[in-house]
């Protein structure tokens, strides 16, 4: 039998909680099956948590404290970790922001807006202010800074493979003044080219499609199962159920087939940038 693979507890927050969960479970003399028998999660899911491949859900933290008699350790530390990870992100997005740092591939579709990883500071600020009209300037600054910092993952030696499929109206909608819109579109092109990413647009005259209702993100990992994240106003949902993930995958592939080619899409965004510059000159 090969030696057991122990995760490096210092590698990430999920790895720390996973290593501690395994230590406490084995200290109590419980097998994975015995530990899982008292909760609604599978042995496979708990194993992934112990290996640092999944973040620990609050329900598991509460169960572990009760089952392993850890005096509230997991609940307390998980709250601290989630608060630190949030740092300007909405609570429902904190796990996604952490996971994308470890992603091997990120595939996004959005019928309404430019995805966060491709936004400029001006665009992000306009969206944050629109969705939180009564937020303080400090709160807005924190949210914008958090969103901008996410793009640093593209600066890594081996950034994730990135693919985005957007509705054409996303680059036609004048969220910013013409000059800033042109800068935004140039920025998107620069990022896509610098990381050898893929950008596609769904033409305005395209028919309806399954991902029309909300922004959707698919993420794969080198050492964990794939995930889907969907978002609506003030809420988001992480999906790891294999059947649903496969369904989202099929929908994304159909959308990919219906969109313009990458070459035509880059030409489209360049033309849109020039249109905004022409608008600026006519002012």
UniProtKB/TrEMBL annotation:
HTH cro/C1-type domain: from which residue to which, for each copy? Answer: 21-55
SMART domains from the xrefs?
Answer: HTH_XRE
Q: Example GO molecular function term?
A: DNA binding
Which InterPro entries does the record associate with it?
A: Cro/C1-type_HTH, DUF5753, Lambda_DNA-bd_dom_sf
Q: What's the superkingdom here?
A: Bacteria
Name the chain's protein: Helix-turn-helix domain-containing protein
């Amino acid at each position: 039998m090969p030696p057991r693979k122990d995760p490096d507890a210092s590698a990430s927050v999920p790895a720390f909680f996973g290593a501690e969960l395994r230590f406490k479970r084995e200290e109590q003399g419980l097998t994975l099956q015995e530990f899982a028998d008292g909760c609604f999660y599978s042995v496979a899911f708990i194993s992934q948590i112990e290996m640092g491949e999944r973040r620990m859900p609050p329900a598991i933290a509460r169960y572990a404290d009760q089952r392993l008699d850890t005096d509230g350790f997991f609940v307390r530390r998980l709250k601290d970790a989630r608060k630190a990870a949030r740092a300007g992100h909405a609570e429902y997005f904190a796990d996604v922001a952490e996971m994308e740092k470890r992603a091997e591939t990120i595939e996004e579709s959005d019928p309404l807006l430019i995805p966060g990883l491709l936004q400029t500071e001006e665009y992000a600020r306009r969206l944050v202010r629109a969705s939180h009209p009564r937020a303080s300037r400090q709160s807005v600054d924190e949210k914008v800074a958090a969103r901008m910092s996410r793009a640093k993952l593209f600066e890594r030696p081996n950034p994730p493979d990135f693919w985005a499929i957007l509705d054409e109206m996303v680059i036609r909608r004048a969220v910013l003044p013409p000059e800033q819109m042109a800068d935004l579109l140039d920025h998107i092109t620069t990022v896509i080219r610098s990381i050898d990413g893929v950008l596609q647009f769904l033409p305005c005259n395209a028919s309806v499609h399954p991902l029309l209702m909300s922004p959707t993100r698919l993420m794969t990992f080198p050492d964990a199962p794939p995930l889907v994240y969907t978002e609506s106003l003030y809420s988001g949902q992480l999906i790891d159920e294999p059947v649903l993930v496969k369904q989202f995958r099929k929908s994304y592939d159909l959308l990919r087939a219906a969109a313009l080619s990458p070459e035509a899409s880059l030409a489209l965004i360049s033309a849109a940038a020039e249109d905004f510059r022409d608008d600026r000159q006519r002012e």
